[in-house]
Amino acid sequence: MSVFKSAMSQLKSAAEAMNLEPAIEEILKRPQRAIEFSLPLKMDSGETKVFEAYRVQYNNARGPYKGGIRFHPQTSLDEVKALAFWMTIKCAVVNIPYGGAKGGIKLDPKNLSWRELELLSRNYIRALRSDIGPFQDVPAPDVNTNAKIMGWMADEYGALQGKYEPAVITGKPMALGGSAGREMATGAGGFYILAEILKKLKKDPKKTTVAIQGIGNVGYWFAQAVMKAGLKIIAISDSQGAIFDKRGLGMDPDHVMETKKSKGLLAGCYCSGTVCDCKNYQSISNEKMLELPCDVLVPAALENQITDKNAGKIKAKIILELANGPVAPEADKKLNKSGTLVVPDVLANAGGVVGSYLEWVQNLYGYSWTEKEVLEKIKEKMLCALQSVWCVKETNKIDMRTAAFSLAISRIAEAIKGRGWV
Ligand code: NAD
Asked: Is the pTM of this model over 0.85?
């Protein structure tokens, strides 16, 4: 299934709902630039392998291109184009001065050594050196990339420029100009949105059950916030399976992560342990996990997890999209019809890019904010965006995704017109 096609069908729905000028829709139907390149790498074995790589710069009407880099065996140009489009929308939903971009390398990082990963990360930046920059295009981490990798990339860019420029990349280690709170920003931001929606729906957080698909960076920090606030986590999964405890007692994200790490082998920078190593819970399949009766289902792994096939079996009342594109458009229609509230990715997971924006601002101005200051600023941005999206949704009696897209597209359209492109 083409992820970009799904993204374009979301654009079409929003364009119809807001009666968008055709010229603006034409601009938003395609990326401004899509760079597809190959990276040869001499492996530890002496053999040379060639990796496919991408950077899509979707739209920069509102500011520099912004978006993460993912390392994944299934990454493709089609997927990166969709993710870059969603970044354009997301930055406009939370009203930060960025356009949208995304990048990726097609590989399974668990099969590479530290040395191989570092060389490949540096080669990626070398290939893109004239296409990125603090006011041009600012990458960040995404699936299977982390602060360590961003550190190598920032260092490589600095070496090529002859001076270290931290604002070229976000999600860096603290010692290299990273920001306090950036690592937890997406999960924490998602939680601020959920807590506010529960308030709007007059639901008691203490009686709210949550199932989380994907306990990576985003899922873990979201689980932490959920635990602290007293909601019940009843299931957690990773790529190898899921664990379940309907009482929701004692499903402690730290315990799960520690067991995953201690039982797993370390390959490259990655833990290959699994939540299934935890003993005190019932093991279930990934498919069954998505269908559990719960109040909130949180897909925090990859795109296209809830499709036409399983949408009818979803029992959650709220779906909080922390992953990008986890609900396919046909599934979205079914869920909206059945009364499930789908909180779209372009709002729910925008805490990450707001955290990145705050890191960029600190780098440009030489500021150093505390974790508390950063999280407060993220919360303010997220709640302000939620308020605006909710207002569009209620006024026009439309679903939340269409409302978020309409709001974002109207802001992008204003910038496009202001620049005189239309
Ligand atoms: P990650 O690599 O740290 O974690 C991904 C997790 O998903 C891993 O635990 C993996 O085992 C699990 N997973 C993969 N396939 C699965 C499956 N079929 N079922 C269950 N679990 C599965 O990645 P991340 O940074 O946490 O990103 C997760 C999602 O959030 C992605 O869609 C990403 O684009 C999106 N996102 C991330 C950020 C960020 O700041 N990292 C920001 C916005 C959006």
From this structure: yes
